[in-house]
Amino acid sequence: MYIFSRKTLNLILFCCITFFAYAEEQSTEISDVLKTTLIMTGDNNYPPYEFVNQNGEPDGFNIDLINALAKALNLSVKIELRTWEYAKNAVESGEAEIITLMHSAERDKIYDFARPNLIVTHGIYVPENSRISDINALIGK
Q1: Whole-model pTM?
Q2: Is-contact 99 41, C-beta < 8 A?
Q3: DSSP structure class, residue 136
Q4: Cα gap 43→28, rounded to integer Å
Q5: Radius of gyration of the chain (CA)
Q6: What's the pLDDT tens digit per position in 52-97?
């Protein structure tokens, strides 16, 4: 028996819906899609999310997540981590079906996004005597 957190279960459910919508959109029988190997691509140097480990294998949070989803859904997924530009081009050209990336309005025109499985926030820290007093001071830098 597998035990998943609520976030993971929500992601699995969303991926199922997205996956089946993808299969329907492609006018392919779902049973045929389930028999194929899906290609997941990503950045080979984006730790802790995606990277190639010391053994030359894909590793990281996104890799663990896609492997858990594949196991839970009984899917075959091949993971190919390359340069970021290669990964984006692989999805856009149809060489790969899955990529993990941050949402933006520009990317929304190109990709079909699942619900986020991770919310990332960033902080900017400067010395007390810095000329940078707010985020606007960084525009154009």
Answers
A1: 0.65
A2: yes
A3: G
A4: 29
A5: 18
A6: 999 999 999 999 999 998 998 888 999 999 999 999 999 999 999 9
